[in-house]
């Protein structure tokens, strides 16, 4: 029975769960912190504190902040565009855009890692979503023959990354209704894809 004056203590996560759950919690906490503040601005001690473990345990499990970042990027944050469900190139592009918007925290980490020099110099990143779209656009009849599917995929991906990172700022700066901007941007992207098919 607890009274108001009692301090309720909970066991640190490492004492109540196994190593794999701790590692997942570290990756999730690091993703949030890196997305909010960038990679260089976050210390291993802060990540450990967020999870409720010692920084020594993080070093034991991961070795370095760079390895934690590598794991954050490798988890891909659930970024799966389900391109096999798209019936047209337009739908495939819209799915890629939606995937980046839905996983904007993961995208902000990736953007910070690129801007701070971690990707691709220290941590290779092979975006499966972009490669899936490029493969889809390379199918016969998906694009005009004078267009490079990889370049079109890269442009769609860069637009999606930019919107995921700066969409709120762009809405405010250009007076765009934030409540409807995602659907409008998807439609514009679809129009652009239709224009190059």
Descriptive account of the structure:
This protein is mainly alpha-helical. The chain has helices at 13-16, 19-37, 44-51, 55-62, 65-75, 89-102, 104-115, 128-137, 149-174, 181-196. The longest helix is centred in the last third of the chain and has 26 residues, at 149-174. It is elongated and about 55 Å long. The chain starts with 12 loop residues before the first helix and ends with a helix.
Please provide a brief summary of the model.
The protein has 197 residues and is an all-alpha fold. The protein is built from 10 helices and no strands. It is elongated and about 55 Å long.
Question: What portion of residues is helical?
Answer: 55-70%
Q: From the alpha-carbon coordinates, what is the Rg to the nearest angstrom?
A: 20 Å
C-alpha termini separation: 68 Å
| Shape, principal axes of CA atoms | elongated
Biggest sheet layout: none
Number of strands: 0
SSE pattern:
HHHHHHHHHH
Strand content: under 5%
The residue ranges in which pLDDT falls below 50 over 5 or more consecutive positions are 1-11
The average pLDDT value, as a whole number, equals: 83
Count of alpha and pi helical runs: 10
Q: What structural class results from the helix and strand content?
A: mainly alpha
């Amino acid at each position: 029975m607890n009274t108001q004056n009692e301090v309720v203590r909970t066991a640190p996560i490492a004492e109540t769960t196994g190593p794999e759950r701790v590692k997942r919690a570290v990756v999730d906490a690091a993703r949030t912190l890196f997305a909010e503040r960038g990679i260089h601005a976050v210390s291993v001690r802060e990540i450990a504190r967020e999870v409720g473990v010692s920084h020594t345990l993080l070093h034991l499990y991961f070795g370095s902040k760079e390895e934690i970042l590598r794991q954050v990027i490798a988890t891909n944050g659930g970024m799966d565009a389900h391109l096999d469900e798209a019936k047209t190139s337009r739908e495939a592009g819209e799915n890629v855009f939606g995937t980046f918007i839905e996983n904007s925290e993961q995208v902000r980490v990736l953007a910070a890692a690129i801007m701070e020099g971690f990707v691709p110099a220290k941590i290779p990143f092979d975006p499966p979503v972009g490669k899936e779209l490029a493969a889809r656009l390379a199918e016969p009849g998906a694009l005009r023959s004078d267009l490079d599917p990889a370049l079109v995929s890269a442009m769609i991906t860069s637009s999606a990354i930019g919107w995921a990172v700066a969409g709120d700022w762009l809405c405010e700066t250009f007076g765009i209704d934030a409540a409807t901007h995602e659907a409008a941007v998807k439609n514009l992207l679809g129009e652009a894809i239709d224009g190059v098919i």
